[in-house]
Amino acid sequence: MTEQRDVVIVGAGPVGFVTALGLARQGIDVTLIDAEPGIVNSPRAAIYHPVTMELLDRLGVIDDCMAIAFHCHGLAMRYPETGDIIAFNYEKAALPEQKYKFNLHFGQHELAAVIADHLARLPNTRVHWNHRLEGLVQDGERVMLGVETPDGRKQISARWVIGADGARSTVRHLLGLPFEGFTWPERFIATNVEVDLRALGYFDTNMVIDPVNWAVIARLSRGNLWRLTYGEDGRLDEETMWERVPAHYRAFMPPETDYKIVQAAPYRCHERSAPSFRVDRVLLAGDAAHACNPCGGLGLTTGLMDANALFQLLGAVMHGHVGEEALDHYARERRRIFLEITSPSAQHFKKQMSEPDPAVRAQQREATRKAMENPSTATMSAVISRRIVGGPLPVGAALAL
Question: Which residues belong to any copy of the FAD-binding domain (predicted)?
């Protein structure tokens, strides 16, 4: 028997869950499927900027997030070759209209768990684990999905399908869409480590600027759990990654430092985008639509802003307030924002962190120092985040959330 559903979201990560909750809050029937047996806990992006916090506030989950997250009020740009540390205060950098003037740090799996709890309280919602998408066919009116489950293969017929299933998206693959762009030559190593880095002089968020030993180091909890992400030569054997971790750590802390690695994950970073974020009744969001390197925390922000735009526009279409052309606006505008704002900004941060030329590094260091001292330029990171949100959506007064 074929299941009849209104919206099926493929991928139960933060983008999929946020999209599901946004639609469900408008009374729309939502089904979320994922090939994994449950919410995945792995070292991925964990920094939530004020624009994302505003979204979580509108969705009614901000209090739960605030209760479990670490509240970060600033960062430091660190230059090991000179010993310079340039501090950056988020409140100083805030725009006048900002409600929140700090960042939240907590795992994507924790956000997913919070939203899953809220989603479960709403009618006509369901989350199916161990459901692997294997087929997708459209006929102009509905989308037929072939899904492998623990009980065998089943068919799901949906009015709309959203692919939020990551950079290796099965949805994108089944649509026959390429993933245009490039992959960075470095392998990124994300580690969660228990260590007292505050005692070593680290701020709660740190960007280490060095041609070899660059890193993003951020506190993940109110205790001593930290995220330390660094890069290594992508040609090295991934299987021997663990053997090299102690040598990399010596660049960031004295050899006698006590630490305990809780998790570590290697991954390749991309600057890629699908050529279209909509194919008839299937839409792409988050890493399924685009992917960038994690320097600056813009990938997660962009994915969640995709979800923000998508649940509003698709909700308005399904309630008959606007025509389906609103979804073309989504596809066109979110792709533009990634190509013109997110990816160039992320590439700039990555290149600045690992700049090989010492003269250029010195120029960038002094430019950063002056920017932090000038209120008009100190707000640039907040401006970038606000631009990633995008402009007004074509839904008008019909918006339900």
Answer: 6-337
